[in-house]
Amino acid sequence: MANPTLLILAGDGIGPEVMGQVTRVIDWFGAKRDLAFDVSHDLVGGAAYDAHGTPLHDDTMAKALEADAVLLGAVGGPKYDDLDFSVKPERGLLRLRKEMDLFSNLRPAQCFDALADFSSLKKELIAGLDIMIVRELTSGVYFGEPRGIIEEGNERVGINTQRYTESEIDRVARSAFELARRRGNKVCSMEKANVMESGILWREVVQKVHDTDYPGVELSHMYADNGAMQLVRAPKQFDVILTDNLFGDILSDCAAMLTGSLGMLPSASLGAPNADGRPKALYEPVHGSAPDITGQGKANPIACILSFAMALRYSFDEGEEATRLERAVEKVLADGARTADLMGPEGGTPISTTQMGDAILAALDNSL
Ligand code: NAD
20 to 30 A from 287, CA-CA: which of 70, 154, 253, 363? Predict the structure, then answer.
């Protein structure tokens, strides 16, 4: 059988630095676990603009639609700040999300014991935390019409529209229930059904999808404002949180920060399944291109490496190998390896991006 295909879009700033370590990890799985991928590389963001005058060339878009999964580093940087909006590096990423129709954004918030002191919450509240936020990514108030700033009488009015169709809610709810089945089997759906009609419909459709096709998954509903409070009061009560685009934007950032550093946070964006059952998928760290540390060997590659672990689990059904990789990261951190962003008040000597890659590969070797 042909190897699965991976398209790597390393992007700008620290993107290529952290992706360099991911490439080593991919090679390790090919060499040591008989899990080889056909990997190709292309440009996105500022790098694509420099080469082609556009942040995503049509050929790259076509390759992304063909690939079994896309791994993305980061886009952007001060060099591109003054570009026209239509060719800004971020437009490349938005085009990928839109044309791949990636409606389900998965953001784990997982606390590695070795980093529990990094959280702004008490250690006992977050040690062992492992939650997943599923955010609807392609609809809702960021896309709804009408929108704009209009004149009304003698003043201006800013308008955005929260709009969800039943099918949009249905498909993202299914993705949350499927995910819950592979984890703790619990979904908490968050909206504002108390004050928003779109929230009432959201709640009805989620309940219906549950009752019809996922009755074995435990489902609860919560108003999103209460959800925000519960996330910082007792986050371990959650397994999968399902929510819309706007609330998900806020709740996922809040949950992510429970666990400490931006350099640790992976994400996945999934679309509808292809004929082979694999969803269209883009995996990327949550962080940006970090221009302040670019080229200095300081970037933490773990977020990007954990994004590849998500690809193993969600695109290639290699959950055990994903866990092997996550355990390797956990072991390295428990042994005290720290890039500069993970240095606590006790100080110490940070290791470089490559040294972190070395340590993770050594831990993978030891896992055999
Ligand atoms: P950023 O995430 O790039 O950096 C924020 C801070 O976190 C910086 O101090 C940076 O050094 C640090 N940091 C981030 N990732 C790190 C890592 N892996 N290891 C160690 N430290 C890390 O956010 P920003 O500074 O607001 O944005 C910089 C550029 O990135 C901008 O052009 C922005 O538009 C872009 N951006 C892109 C994405 C993306 O590609 N998905 C996301 C956010 C920001």
Answer: 363
What CATH number is given to the structural domain containing 254? 3.40.718.10
Please give the Cα distance from 66 to 72 (Å, whole number). 15
In DSSP notation, 79-143 reads GGTTS-GGGSHHHHHHHHHHHTT--EEEEEEE--GGGGGGSSS-HHHHTT-EEEEEEE-SSGGGT
Arithmetic mean of pLDDT, 255-269: 87
In whole angstroms, give the CA distance from residue 271 to residue 137: 10
Query: Which of 29, 34, 21, 32 minimizes the C-alpha distance to 71?
Result: 21
Please indicate, yes or no, if residue 247 is contained in any of the structural domains: yes
Q: Would residue 249 show up in a list of annotated catalytic residues for this protein?
A: yes
| pLDDT confidence of residue 118 | 80
Average pLDDT over residues 33-54: 98
Full domain range(s) for residue 69: 1-110+261-368
Question: What is the Å distance from ligand 1's center to 178 Cα?
Answer: 31
Question: Is 101 an active-site residue?
Answer: no
Domain membership flag for residue 22 = yes
Residue 121 counted as domain residue: no
DSSP three-state, residue 352: coil
Asked if 341 is an active-site residue, the reply is no
State whether 252 and 303 are in the same domain.
Answer: no
| The model's pTM | 0.93
Q: Relative to the CA of 75, which ligand 1 atom is closest?
A: 40
Catalytic one of 63, 101, 130, 142 = 142
Tally of domains in the chain? 2
Q: How far apart are CA 61 and CA 230, in angstroms?
A: 40
Q: At 151, is the secondary structure helix, strand, or coil?
A: strand
